[in-house]
Design a protein that fits this description.
241 residues, 0% strand, 14 helices
């Protein structure tokens, strides 16, 4: 599946309204790939296109959160979203427009939360990928961390869920297994196992794809799954002692 070639045209047929609609409207007004958009006008945006657009816009906002846009972060956006060379111009126009406009990230985060209402695991994946992009230059600044945490709260994620995502970014030998599994050390192995099974199901790549996460970015969800499995293995050892 290639989500980029029809991204803008597909979104035009899907009346998003709100900040996303205004952003796309301004791009069309600027005659961005008019032939493509006219050919696609009237079609409906796929969940994958909505997810991709969300990541582009939030990545643009995140890239200037600490006052500078690093080359490493731009490369991370391109690599993580697996944007082919022939679509960089299209996607770049969306990225730059979102980066330059005065609208903050909050209205976009609220609209994304509405679009994916009831799909909290998809919203968690957005946060997971934003951490990946922020980590690209080797350091997640305080302003970047604050922005990602703010977006997560707008999405409706709890502090336990936010901490679980952050902890899962660590290497297996450094992560706290109880935080990853959203559990407490004094809980029984049976209770923690139920939470492990629940998290494993929610973050399974096949489930995420079925709910609108593009195949192009699904590899990052596998990092979360590895952390969940590693945490469960560690908890079993700790409880056995």
């Amino acid at each position: 599946m290639a989500i980029w070639g029809s991204l803008i045209g597909g979104m035009i047929g899907f009346s998003l309204g709100g900040p996303f609609g205004m952003l796309l409207g301004s791009l069309i007004g600027g005659k961005i790939s008019r032939a493509k958009t006219q050919a696609r006008f009237g079609s409906f945006a796929q969940p994958q296109q909505v997810f991709a657009l969300s990541l582009i816009v939030l990545s643009a906002k995140l890239s200037k959160a600490d006052g500078q846009v690093s080359r490493e972060e731009l490369i991370a956006v391109k690599d993580k979203l697996k944007i082919p060379e022939n679509e960089l111009d299209q996607v770049g126009k969306i990225f730059n427009k979102a980066k330059e406009e005065k609208t903050g990230y909050e209205p976009y985060a609220k609209q994304i939360a509405q679009i994916y209402s009831g799909n909290i695991n998809v919203l968690e994946e957005v946060i997971n990928i934003l951490f990946y992009i922020a980590e690209a230059d080797g350091n997640v600044s305080h302003s970047e961390l604050k922005m990602i945490e703010d977006i997560a709260r707008i999405f409706g994620l709890s502090e336990i869920q936010i901490n679980g995502i952050k902890e899962s970014r660590k290497s297996s030998d450094k992560l706290n297994p109880y935080i990853v599994l959203e559990s407490k050390p004094d809980e029984s192995i049976e209770v923690i196992r139920k939470r492990y099974l629940k998290l494993s199901k929610e973050h399974h790549p096949d489930l995420l794809v079925s709910k609108g996460v593009p195949q192009e970015v699904i590899n990052e969800s596998k990092v979360k799954m590895r952390a969940i499995n590693s945490a469960w293995a560690q908890v079993q050892k700790l409880k056995a002692n």
